[in-house]
Write a structure and sequence with these properties.
alpha+beta, 53 strands, 38 helices, 1389 residues, six-stranded antiparallel beta sheet, 22% strand, globular
Length: 1389
Amino acid sequence: MQRILVKQADGHPTVAFRETIDVKHSSMIPNGTVLQMVGREGEWVKVISGGKLGYIKARNAKLIVGAKKSPASPPAARPAAPVAPAPVPRPAAVPFTPPPAAPAAQSTVCTFTFNGTRYTIDTSKTTMDADMSTHDWIVQNVPNSGLRRSCGVGRCGSCVCMLTYTDATGNTAYRSFNSCIRPVLANNGMSITSSIGIGTTASPHPVQKALADHNGTQCGFCSVGMVMHLYAKLQDSPQGLTVADLDRMVDSNYCRCTGYRPILDAYKSFAVNASEAPQEHVSLKERRAKAFKAVELPRPIVKPVTDVAPQPPAARGNLRGTVGTAEWIQVSSEAALSSTLQQLSKASPAPQDIFLVGGHTSVPLFPRNSDVYVQVGTIPSLQVCEVTDIGVNIGAGCSLTDVIAFLEQVSASQDPSKVIAYQRIAEHGHLSPGSNIRNTGTIGGNIMIAYEHQDMSAFPVDWPMLLQATRATVTIVDCVASTTQVFTLDEFYNMPSMKFKYLQKFFIPFSNAGDVFVTCRNAQRHIYAEAECASAMRCNIQGGKIVANSVFMVFNSLGRTPMRYPAIEKAMYGIDPTDQGVFQNLCAQLAAAIQPMSGNVAYKRSLALSHFYKFFLNMQPSLPASLSLAARPWIPKGVTQGTQMYQTNTSRSPVGQPIPKVDGLKQCTGEAQYVQNIPLPANCLHACPVLATSIGDFTVSDAGVADKVDGYHGLILAKDVPNNKHNGGGTTIADKVTGHIGAVVAVVLADTPQRAVQAAELVQVSYTNVKQQLIMTCEDAIAAGSFFADSKNTLKQGDVATGFANSDYVVEDVWNIDGQYHFHMETQSCLAIPNVENGGLEVHAATQLPVVCSDLLCETLLKDKSQIVVKNKRCGGGFGGKLLNSILPAKLACVAALTRVQPVSLVLEQFTNMKMLGLRVPWRFETKVGFNKDGTINAVQMRPYLNAGYLNQSKGSVTAFLGAMDNCYNIPNWDIACTICKTDLPSNTSMRAPGWLPGIYNAERVISVVASKLNMLAADVRQKNFYKKGDVTPYGFPLNNWNIDQLWDNTKQSAGWQDMVSQVNTFNQSNKWVKKGLALVPTKFAVGYSTPNAFDVEVAVNSDGSVSVMSGGTEIGQGLTTKVTQTIAFLLQIPMERISILEQSTQVLGKHLGEDITGGSISSELCCLASKNACHRINEALAPVRKLMPDAPWDEVVKEAYRLGIPLRFLAMDEGQAKPLDPAGHVYNTYGVAALECTLDSLTGQVHLDKAELTFDIGTSANPVIDIGQIEGAFVMGLGYTLTEAIEYDTKGAMNAADYLIPTPWEIPQTMNVTLATEVANPVTTNGGKAIGEPPMTFTYAAIEAVQMAVAAAAADNGKTPQLCLKAPFTPDRRFADSGAMYTAFKLA
């Protein structure tokens, strides 16, 4: 049985099938041959034979081949000048008769299952909107669904579920998908599964357990999405998955906490070759003692799904109904689709917008309010991929996942010379979009994006470009004319209209012998990010010359559609690709021709030229070793690996043991509850703020909103706020005048979250007296003299003037470090429920400071503290973003709830969250450094400026900065004066290591300045200036426990530092465009306690011996509740399982002096101290009973204590804190060292992090795996801050939130080893540990320095004087510019 092709006489391909005789080409089939069709029963297959169109049913159907024209004459001998074969002629439009289909029942009822339970939606009765998402419908109709929602646009993966359906082949498919963007009506006849549907804590699924056991959760908000992403892939891959397959899977599931390493380890534990996973390198093996322990877990087994029964396409029928203001039509065949579009064309009035829904994945980026939604993603004939003898046909309804898999399968089974393009397309297709989008997004939909949104600079998709370069064609069905016609993609873009037409299939020809096909892609983040420039380039080389008509070069992100430059293509015909002069001439022509429409024009143009250069490098018969790496389209990433090394001590068990988080499994099953998961009370309204886009006088109008949005319940305005003052200078809701961009001008109320968002977009805000020249940066503030009063904060030591005078060199330096968004996966959330009895509120708020939140709500609402109760169980991430930033959303929900006397839920959209609230404080540094020739630093003068936004909430950051600006260096003379700038943006706020991070970064920048001037290795300058034990810092802290020297030496040894230096130098000398860099950076993080009594913890022993605990510290992913549980279990000598952590409530907390503000990395240790004090009182209370019953078990002792009336509930403070050792209140230091190596492609600015070695002294860890998770998570967050998380504003202050890019697993080091140093216990903490949540952020300056080294090596090769980066994050465009790559220097040999 061999696949063949029946052709029209002109040779145009139509359909492939298998036949019963042994032939190689369809032209060899004798007339009258009987062909046996093979396929699914009842499937109609189109066949064209003898110029006639016909259909036959698959299986047991027969076809007699009719007369055929004689084969064409053999081609003439190749001419001297290569000429490409003439293009395959395309037929004119031909009549189209859709394949007959069994009559499908039409219904108004959508039926699907969720976690095994059948649900129906009667479109004739429902009040929902036609495009209501799967997530929103489920959470509003199914209790305890376990779903999460963060971004709302299908990017973050927190909402991921599994979709089970019958595919076009009749097999059951299991695909992860973004429930936040897929319409619930699109699931008709299918099954949906969430994490809670596959297992619970009582009976967890192996996937859930693996993620929890690997410590792959911290805040846990992303965990259910991670579970279902893996679960669906395992179900859909019965052949099994390799380590490499699983390692690259997490491409569209964000995690802000863990740094991904434990998640990837959990994923890889399911690999069929898990035993082959990379191990730690030899130098680590040799040095590690047996006392160290690495986590090793057996590979779990996953059972296949058996409890879902999706309907086959034919059985789903045709769903049709009017929902809201739109009509939803689901069709199950092309016949039904054609008939539907014909009917719509005749409707009066004709619908203005008809949306053919494939995967619905583009809608968050290109919103539309359609009149009619026609779901075509359920048509089997549009989802068929097939091989012909000259190429492949791909149905327009095929998902991108299926297309990639099909091309990979074809590539593996065909002659390699025929599948060059297929291999490159498949590899390129993995880069963007992410796999959860690819699973449902269709290739036809991607091509339609290019057609409908011909400003492709808005959000370019690469698939049109990839197909265009292959000379692919698209078959289009015109349902009104009942014809089909084939177009090239160039022709397709120019079609006047696609109304009442649809894409049927794509034909991609095989590659030819001699083809060169190269694709490239560059973005600010390598995967799942908008491309700065992408390209697909093809040519054919014969006899050393480029064949005429064989050149197709398509560039994305440069123009309104994927761009071609025909003049350059034509100029390449017949040339020798090794001719340097010709190549340079072509580069000059291309440089002149490229005119990018938007963005960083110079960078985009340069990227296109670099891609062109890579194209030519791939044409060379051979390349010198110095250019071979430059020919790669991008730097590939290997399988991630790493070790986590620590010691354990069983003497205080369970304290000190590597125990998974107590809530980890709940987070993985979906049973852990966040504010947005609390069951909503009856009549609950949903709120959405309306934000200011200008500064000036304003009026608000909601005229017409109620007519356009069902369920709209009006506005909350400034007049509704009892006390409108906010945070000491602002307003809760702006009153007549906006003070800053992003100010809340009104709050919309509606009956569903999505309708609240829709209504908010329709509210009209009119401005007068608009401020034209906005102040957005420190530079703007300096120019305008816009500073907060009394904003000067100074620190002086010694005499800098004398220090400069005694220095060999004095160098001035200016650089900026930008802000950073918290991007906590759980956005700001609050549920306010009126208490009708006392006129107050029960407030469920995602906050790090419940007591302060309660106090501020009382001020705003003019209520007594007894009337406002704030509750919180946990936060889905915080990083400081749930401190003061959490107050305004809570106020808005509470004001609305009191005004309407109804429950109100406010869950901010991720982009609204970013635009409304502040971020990490941006800084500008003007620094002067005096130093000697040997690298000794004598004096530093700093003039830091920090951008506070419109209110000054940054004083704490300045205080922390002044306790960190020296880092590890004994510099005798300091002169620092900080200035706080007032700008027109939201008030910036604390974020992980506020103040410490810029302080340590700028200390390391001083080292970079000295090393650059002296041409020394920065690590040597550092070691030259280290403190010594017993030294005192400029702010008065005695370094009696100084141990950086030991950590430094240990890290150098474990990383193989000397070998790294030698190898990097050799590499850079041997490679022209690809360079390596490295860094070795220490950190000294000063830890202080804010108040003598910061936290309270209540420990209550129940009558059955179980223990209930309420902690003033908020669990935000740092493992606080686990460490508290371990501490109590040890002190009371009971199993951890007997201890339950209750939700926080201000009815209990804050009744003494406790502020209960979670931050500064001290919350866990102080809550453990408060727990210790409470347990001490419990043990004292139980002492008389134990004396009477010395051998009695715990439960009996407790029972007797209750009988005797002995109270066993105690609320204790963290009394007994260590005394400060300096005026700033610091009590100890956390120390660490990081070694990092990176690789840079200077032609594009892409960076790959090769390896990192992280060593930390955290005393004796209370829980090593939690602390290692904090180190890795903070380190990767810091890598995002330094390399990818650029923030863009336009001149009106509008922030481009959609393109804010946090790290993915691609951005983490390929090898990342973490060691907890074996040091003595910290004497000032309960369990002997040290703060760890924030310190590892600070040594991520290593990323800047390593990349700077690689950039400097490239710049030197390009004849450019190396310079230090002027701004962090050091993004690809900045790296490229500093590298100095110019097309005039491109050499082919």
